[in-house]
Amino acid sequence: MSSSTADPRLASAGPPRRPIRLSWSDERLRAIVWQILVVGIVGSIVWWLWSNTVHNLEVRRIATGFGFLQREAGLPIGESLIDYDPTHSYLRALTVGVLNTLKVAVVGVILATILGTLIGIAKLSKNWLVSKLASFYIEVIRDLPLLLQLLFWYTILQGLPGPRQALNPVDGVFLSNRGMKLPWIEWLPAHNWALLAMVAGAVGTWAYARAMRAKQYADGQPRKIWPAGLALMVGLPLVVWAAHGAPFTPDIPALRGFNFRGGISISPEYFALLLGLVTYTAGFIAEIVRAGIQAVNQGQWEAAEALGMRRAEILKRIVLPQALRVIVPPMTSQYLNLTKNSSLAVAIGYQDIVSIANTTLNQTGQAIEGIAIIMLVYLSISLSISLFMNWYNARIALVER
Amino acid sequence: MKALRLSVTRALGGVALAASLAAPLAAQQAPAAGTATTLDAIRARGSLICGVNTGLAGFAQPDSQGVWRGFDVDYCRAVAAALWNDASRVRYVPTTAQNRFTALQSGEVDMLSRNTTWTLSRDTSLGFDFTGINFYDGQGFMVKASAGVRTARDLNGATICVQPGTTTEQNLTDWARANRIQFTPVVIEQLNDVVQAYVSGRCDAYTTDVSGLASTRSAQARPQEHVILPDVISKEPLGPLVRHGDQRFADLLRWIHYGLIGAEELGITAANVAQAAASDQRPEVQRMLGRTGDLGRMLTVDNAWLLNVIRTVGNYGEVFERNLVPIGLQRGPNALWTNGGLQYSPPFR
């Protein structure tokens, strides 16, 4: 842009420089003084807090530093996604906590989005009963404190019968105050390969769909994608599984001693937390979705109807893609809220990062380090969500020229 | 413009002044937290801030009038009695198992009297000083009578409720490892909630110090439905604690505890202490109750300190009798050494 002209008078950008006068009436001098002052004040406050803290810790002979992370934790953890026992280090215990937080946050975000979208659409339904029920749900759920709702769900789940009188709605499924027990299979390497084949199949299906769509754009002929998808995502894993000898040993839960052994379980603490977070956040998401849909011009509906599209199809193909632009930014806030609200897990005994870091800081006495770890974890998760959502928002944004 | 410039320079001057104040302030305040003793701060304030349990029958619990009562509470009252001869000058701060240490470290409370186990790491890296053992306890298990469990070893595979941030949690894992017992923990912070989880059947067993189990059991609608197993899996010496560096305050707490035991040894009770102070001829009694000698001064309090303490809360046996016997606890190891127990006082001279 600057090379478009050869005029030397324009080569030096901006107005001619004038030396800074050492006078208060010089605008630039004032700006510099203010900036140094503000940075200095902030810096000295931080320094003061820091040095005071370090000094007080020394005076009270409280140990500092992160060396404790390598020490043996000795704290029991009820549920863990990775191998853990109390002989492992505090670092491992905290990792278990982070994974437990992610387990409830990720599943919660997905379920809350689905449930919230359905309720948001239901509120706009032309069916009087459906729309009023959705409004009722939104008002009740949004107006009650989340902690109360969590305790409510946890109390309800505790009210289930004991393991010996467990409800058995379907063969192999047991529902008791120890949680839900589901049958599972004995997991072998063959299953890992089959799972990998399914992922590969999904990628293949996506590539195939892309190629077919390109062809459709070229000749206008729609092509069926599902036969290839089925073959890639179901057939391929089955073939891989069969090639490994098709191992299949069902692992059905059975009552032995105090509790059920075998199968997989969902603890009442996790289930209550998930239920509370999903139903609560869905109330807010429903309103966001409703607002997003209503933000799409009525003319879009009418135009699509004029083309002979069905209502469900209009919603899916015309309205929702446009509504997403309005929906996504406030949705990010809801995802962040859900993740941070998961720290209320402490109240009902689900061992998330806050619970485990609290115990750690209590056993080691290193409160500042413990709180710093909690802050770091939530900051990382929240920034990741924000980054992803901003990327997604940019992707679906209306391309304007 | 001139007015603006004036106000700006004035503001600058203010900031500079504040900055110049902040620097020595930082240097002054930090050592002040360490050197000015807590005892001075308590005297200046005119009341004691005592960290107690959030509500454990027999140890610390508000009664129907909202007045705190219990074994641990009596130790707070004894300190106020020694300082001002007025047991009401105590403000009680309920603390959970998790926040109690931060409350003491940060200076939110002057002392903890909150059934806290004396351990090496708490004494050193947490920066506390324990001032004695006023209750010898041990960790046990409570189960429902209907579960048919006889000993703790029968608990293999059980779900066990436990409060986090306690030695209980670590003892449990140590014990399970040593005995090759598998268990599923349910970890809930609030005492009420963890007890509720056990009662509702979420857990097969609830574990904490035997004294805590007895307290919880006595608070149930039908205590006979719950059994405390005979196994004791740990040593839990409980006692009050202060911050590291509060030697004077620690001395006072230590000798109040010994004074309570000494009084029981010598047969001095709340009822007869005034008479004993006036007419008991035993030299140790005269020294303890401040008729002769200067023991109170040495502790920087009035010479009648122990007289006031005993008059207010009674001797150790009376404190125990009043608070812990009703919840079903026996003296056991907490009997006087003369009766085959562990409670023993160094001489008052």
TrEMBL record, chain A:
* Gene Ontology molecular-function annotations: transmembrane transporter activity
Organism superkingdom? Bacteria
Q: Where are the transmembrane segments?
A: 31-50, 104-124, 190-209, 230-250, 270-289, 371-392
For this chain, the family text in UniProt reads: Belongs to the binding-protein-dependent transport system permease family. HisMQ subfamily.
Q: Which GO terms describe its cellular component?
A: ATP-binding cassette (ABC) transporter complex
- What is the organism field in this record? Falsiroseomonas stagni DSM 19981
Write out the annotated subcellular location.
Answer: Cell inner membrane; Cell membrane
Report how it sits in the membrane: Multi-pass membrane protein
Which keywords are on file for this protein? Amino-acid transport, Cell membrane, Membrane, Transmembrane, Transmembrane helix, Transport
User: What name does UniProt use for this protein?
Assistant: General L-amino acid transport system permease protein
Occurrences of domain ABC transmembrane type-1 (ranges): 98-389
Q: Does the keyword Transmembrane apply?
A: yes
Which BP terms in the Gene Ontology apply to this protein? amino acid transport
UniProt lineage: Bacteria, Pseudomonadati, Pseudomonadota, Alphaproteobacteria, Acetobacterales
Chief localization? membrane
Which Pfam families does this entry report, sorted A to Z? Answer: BPD_transp_1 (PF00528)
From TrEMBL, chain B:
| Record's signal peptide | 1-32
Q: Does the keyword Chloroplast apply?
A: no
Domain Solute-binding protein family 3/N-terminal as annotated: residue spans: 47-276
* GO biological process terms, semicolon-separated: amino acid transport
Q: Does the keyword Transport apply?
A: yes
Output the superkingdom of the source species: Bacteria
Database matches in SMART domains: PBPb
Looking up CDD domains in the UniProt record yields: PBP2_BztA
Keywords from UniProt, A to Z, are: Signal, Transport
Q: Per UniProt, what is one Pfam family of this protein? A: SBP_bac_3
The family note in this entry says: Belongs to the bacterial solute-binding protein 3 family.
Name of the protein in question = General L-amino acid transport system substrate-binding protein
Q: From which organism does this entry originate?
A: Falsiroseomonas stagni DSM 19981
